[in-house]
Amino acid sequence: MKDGIIKGQGNSRLLKAPATIPNTFAEFRTALINGTLPVDMLFNAAGWDVIGTALNKANLLTDVVAAALGLEGDDPTVSEAINALMAVATQQKNGLMSSTDKAKLDGVAAGANNYVHPTADGYKHIPAAGAADNILGYSAVGTAQWIRQLAIKALIEAANQTAYGITNVDAALALLRPARHYGKRSQMNGGTAHSATAGRGVMSFETEVVDDFNAINLGSSASRITIPAGITKAKFYFSGNVYATNSSGSIRLYKNGAEVYNMLGFSHSDENFYGAGNNAIVFSPIVDCAAGNYFEIFADTNGSGQPISSVNAGSMFGMEACG
Known about the structure:
Blueprint: E1 5-6, E2 13-16, H1 25-34, E3 40-43, E4 48-50, H2 57-60, H3 63-68, H4 78-86, H5 99-106, E5 134-140, E6 143-148, H6 158-164, H7 169-176, E7 185-189, E8 200-202, E9 207-211, E10 225-226, E11 233-239, E12 242-244, E13 249-255, E14 258-266, E15 268-269, E16 272-273, E17 281-283, E18 287-288, E19 294-301, E20 308-311, E21 316-321
Antiparallel strand pairs: 1-4, 2-3, 5-6, 7-9, 7-21, 8-19, 10-19, 11-17, 11-18, 11-21, 12-20, 13-14, 13-19, 15-16
């Protein structure tokens, strides 16, 4: 705003009276004393060196400003406008920041909104792309990659469950590829006759052929394969000729002295009974095991009083670890 400066010549204001002004001095005096003397005070620009800012609505508080401050009524005042400006801001109206909000703002660290996502181990996102039948696999520390997998049916035919002793996909995969022990085995050869008569007798062997797991100790037992630490699943195999007299029989796998699987059944032919004929090999299903478990092969005859007469010297008994 600008202050007004008068020239001091006595003409900054002019008085104007209407035609009804009293004619006599006495009437004039009486009207002046009573405050009924009709007269207007006019602004005379010629009597001013500097004309000050006019104190009017346009310069003090316009309707637009009043509305912006949320002032109501037809005649808001400057005081009301100042009070509105001093009020604390809300979500609906502008205003000053409260001391509580100022304390919150001061508590925000410098650069707090400048977020940079960490890239260290444990913070990396799932990689882009990928497709059906893909799974996430290891790429580097803290980093994954998409790997294509062959679809494997969860259900296995009942016939295969019975034939291979498997009931789920994990067991089927273990049968196809014996994991970290692939290609390793323990085997002993040279089966000998046993003394079974009308029942079952354990088969013993004479020679250690291969023993990747230190599972064979012919000095302490010529019939056992003992599971070492670290092996939880294994399958067993047998090959050789077994002869009996006048009866059918079978070759059975025992674990810790109890039968776990009937590996082969055979019936008579010209009074001779042949186990894995022509040295063919029979396998057990994958068997759960633990360190210290021992497995043996038993020859069985079903006839009353009929013994197993001999076990071919070329017979063999072995184990392949599968897990």
